[in-house]
Automatic annotation (TrEMBL):
NCBIfam families: PRK00481.1-3 (NF001753). Zn(2+) binds at residues 130, 133, 155, 157. This is protein acetyllysine N-acetyltransferase. InterPro entries: DHS-like_NAD/FAD-binding_dom (IPR029035), NAD-dep_sirtuin_deacylases (IPR050134), Sirtuin (IPR003000), Sirtuin_cat_small_dom_sf (IPR026591), Ssirtuin_cat_dom (IPR026590). Keywords: Metal-binding, NAD, Transferase, Zinc.
């Protein structure tokens, strides 16, 4: 690893407390959460996303969604623990050395690590809601019940219960998206961690930050469409980079 770039990043974070992290699937793979597009292991290689996690497909066959996810896909979300990246980001927020984290992830690991100022662009798998009355449920409890009785999860009002994640065919939560763009416009440093920057409209945020004067750092195993405009690019695994960042940060304290 080019340690010079990691040291530069640590210095940029220290010099820019109004920084914002932007995390994608690569930030959670070391916690056992599958990413979406990796050849062979990506989630989209294992399920028909157009049927199972599109809003139309879910409403037509909600039981099919629960059957597939209870067969092993939900377990990683239920049992995952934060890794060094989640913990480092939460530590910076606690120290007032970071403003917020914007995430494409639905696993809730930033909150579990202790972050408070989180914009979950694609929702959270931690909770579920009735599609009509909005009553909230623990997703873990919803799946536990489904695995016991095999019945399509329903609210007490008799309508279907759906995880609080953004399915294909749904818009991103307007308030979360607006807050994310405000954070991007106001930050002086944006750090992308583990995102291929291929999913619209989330992938507009780093460029938006850059266009508003922020420095841009991209940490990702593979190249992204915004590498050309970034101030620092680190093509390494999230765990490796954040372990070094954490060591540098603590040594400097």
């Amino acid at each position: 690893m080019n340690m010079d770039n990691v040291r530069k990043l640590a210095r940029l974070i220290a010099d820019n407390p109004y920084n914002v992290f932007f995390t994608g699937a690569g930030a959670s793979t070391e916690s056992g959460i599958p990413d979406y597009r990796s050849e062979g292991s990506g989630l989209w290689n294992r399920i028909d996303s157009s049927k199972l996690i599109s809003l139309k497909g879910f409403l037509e066959n909600p039981k099919g969604f629960y059957e597939v996810f209870s067969g092993g896909l939900f377990a990683p979300f239920a049992h995952a623990e934060p890794n060094v990246a989640h913990m480092f980001i939460a530590m910076l927020e606690e120290q007032k050395a970071s403003k917020a984290v914007i995430t494409q992830n639905i696993d809730g690991l930033h909150r579990k690590a202790g972050s408070f100022n989180i914009c979950e662009l694609h929702g959270s798998m931690e909770t579920s809601s009735c599609i009509i009355c909005g009553k909230s449920f623990s997703t873990a409890e919803v799946f536990d019940k489904f695995m016991l009785d095999g019945a399509t999860p329903e609210c007490t009002c008799g309508n279907i219960v759906k995880p609080d994640i953004v399915f294909f065919g749904e818009s991103l939560p307007k308030d979360v998206l607006e807050e994310s763009f405000e954070l991007a416009a106001g930050c002086t440093l944006m750090i992308v961690a583990g995102s291929s920057l291929e999913v619209m409209p989330a992938n507009l945020l780093p460029k938006y930050a850059k266009d508003h004067g922020a420095l841009l750092v991209i940490i990702n195993k593979t190249e992204t469409p915004l590498d050309y405009t970034a101030d620092i690019v680190i093509n390494k695994g999230i765990g490796e980079v954040f372990t070094e960042l954490n060591n540098i940060w603590k040594t400097a304290e």
